[in-house]
Design a protein that fits this description.
Layout: H1 2-8, E1 12-13, E2 17-25, E3 29-36, E4 41-48, H2 56-75, E5 85-91, E6 94-100, E7 104-106, H3 107-114, H4 119-138, E8 141-142, E9 151-154, E10 159-161, E11 168-169, H5 198-214, H6 224-233, H7 243-252, H8 263-275, E12 283-284, E13 287-288, E14 311-314, H9 317-341, H10 351-373, E15 377-380, E16 384-389, E17 392-397, E18 401-407, E19 410-415, H11 428-431, E20 441-442, E21 448-452, H12 461-468, H13 474-477
Antiparallel strand pairs: 1-2, 2-3, 3-4, 4-6, 5-6, 7-9, 8-11, 9-10, 12-13, 14-15, 15-16, 16-17, 18-19, 19-21, 20-21
Length: about 500
């Protein structure tokens, strides 16, 4: 798949849209950032992806599905919370949907990297997506796959619903006869064969808002059977969510679609929750919710811990002073040639090498000054590990951490998504650490060596080991007796991606 992606970069679609990079993928499609060479603007191009094993008849159905998606989304082109369709073209007898390109991240990615959203943020996301769903439902369109991965958060703050690839119009035939969507976000009635109900989208929205507010899936369980059972019968508990928002989410997650909040009622309830104070204790219908004593840890869920203050450790003062001295020396070196140029009679060409000299040392002065202003930092909080190295932030959420420990004077993290076999590509965020030869880097056993405690002022092995135990696995979190010199990592593969997590 990676080789095919590399080969496709630079390809022109319909002689007009040049593919630049892959930015997303779904069940049947791949989304590319592309350039419209006629208008000289950046667009998003969705390519239909058909497995080699698919029969010609099913291929025709998939093509029909893509064309139907384009028609449906085009009906919503004036809605600010739906990505606009610009064009539909054919390449090699397959359709491509050309859409506006909006720099953004998915809600799923945002939660993975930064943790749960505040109540106000969740409510505003809910209002935006529900408004888009209401507009779609008024046109007879059901989305059928509302989930965090299909919600984009634009860099400008715009919230958008995307991927109507499995949406259905009331007058269109259904391509699939089984439940449609992602299992943990499917409405209960889908398992009874009711798949054209607008209420199903609202249940999926409720499950999505729960995930954004709580940082864990409401119904994810270790097996598919247990997950289906949870969707059909379980009622999620709220730990972080204020009662004003929890009540709305519960209204969306009502098992009986006849009793579920409608779109217009949901919008009114969310706007009311936005106006309500959020300082109250999390609760159900205004009453505090009982915190579960020992909730089982399911797939996608994280254990709860008593609130502890974050541990913050900074780079040693000696390194900061050294960085400041180097910045001053580089700045002086950058200015030195001009004291010679303006003293005495020199040929005019002498200014060129003086400018090159100044640019070189001036660049180093900026680098040293930046590092001096942004010293290395280790922050261990309830929800994340953050390590800033050379001005670059490396952030791991609790979802990505299976365990942590202090060993040999280094903070090591066992990842919940470890490196895979050579035949399967690693996640992009994980590949970023495979090219590094100093912390943070992946050791031969797949453990992430995050930082050396000797680089930080006052970093006690016991203090750090105690702080990281909140991420689970006490045995892995235990520190060693006395820190020793770190072992050198093996050389990373030459083709393993970029160097740092921005």
């Amino acid at each position: 798949m990676a080789a095919e992606t590399d080969d496709a970069v630079g390809t022109r679609i319909a002689g007009r849209y040049q593919l630049i990079e892959q930015i997303g993928a779904g069940a049947y499609g791949t989304v590319w950032r592309a350039v419209d060479e006629v208008l000289n603007v950046t667009v998003a191009a969705k390519q239909l992806r058909i497995p080699a094993t698919v029969s010609p008849g099913h291929t025709s159905l998939l093509v029909t599905q893509v064309m139907r998606e384009a028609r449906m989304v085009a009906k919503l082109r004036d809605h600010p919370n739906v990505v606009t369709v610009l064009d539909v073209v054919e390449e090699n007898n397959l359709p491509w949907i050309i859409m506006e390109y909006v720099p953004s991240v998915s809600l799923a990615e945002a939660i993975r990297t930064r943790g749960v959203f505040s109540a106000d943020e969740v409510i505003r996301i809910g209002i935006s997506i529900l408004d888009a769903l209401v507009a779609a439902h008024q046109r007879g369109i059901n989305h059928r796959d509302v989930k965090p991965a299909n919600i984009l958060i634009g860099h400008d703050g715009r919230v958008m619903l995307v991927d109507f690839g499995v949406a259905v119009h009331g007058s269109d035939p259904s391509i699939s006869e089984g439940p449609i969507g992602t299992l943990t976000y499917i409405a209960p009635e889908q398992f009874a064969g009711i798949r054209r109900s607008t209420a199903g989208d609202l249940f999926s929205l409720g499950a999505t808002l729960y995930y954004a507010a709580e940082g864990a899936s409401a119904f994810s369980r270790p097996t598919q059977a247990a997950t289906i059972q949870a969707v059909l019968h379980d009622h999620p508990r709220f730990v972080r969510t204020p009662a004003s928002l929890a009540t709305v989410i519960e209204g969306f997650l009502t098992k009986d679609p006849a009793d579920r909040l409608t779109g217009s009622a949901g919008l009114a309830a969310l706007r009311g929750a936005l106006a309500a104070p959020h300082r109250e204790e999390p609760g159900h219908a205004g009453e505090p919710l009982e915190r579960p004593e020992e909730p089982p840890k399911h797939v996608g869920e994280q254990p709860e811990h008593a609130a502890e203050p974050p541990v913050e450790l900074r780079e040693s003062r000696l390194r900061r002073v050294l960085g400041g001295i180097l910045a001053v020396v580089a700045l002086a070196a950058a200015a030195a040639p001009w004291s010679v140029v303006y003293v005495g009679d020199h040929p005019a060409w002498i200014g060129a090498p003086a400018a090159v000299w100044s640019c070189f040392f001036g660049s180093w002065a900026v680098v040293f000054g930046y590092l001096f202003c942004r010293p290395d930092l280790l922050l261990i909080s309830e929800t994340a590990l953050r390590y800033r190295r050379d001005g670059v932030d490396h952030l791991l959420t609790r979802e990505q951490i299976d365990g942590a420990r202090v060993r040999a004077g280094r903070l090591e993290v066992r990842l919940s998504d470890p490196p895979r076999s050579s035949g399967s590509p690693d996640p992009a965020w994980l590949r970023r650490y495979q090219v590094r030869s100093e912390p943070p880097y992946l050791d031969p056993g797949g453990v992430l060596v995050l930082c050396a405690l000797g680089d930080l002022s006052g970093a006690s092995a016991e203090q750090v080991a105690s702080a990281v135990r909140r991420f689970g696995n006490e045995e892995f979190a235990g520190s060693s007796s006395a820190p020793t010199a770190p072992t050198a990592p093996t050389a990373p593969p030459a083709d393993s991606g970029v160097t740092a997590l921005a």
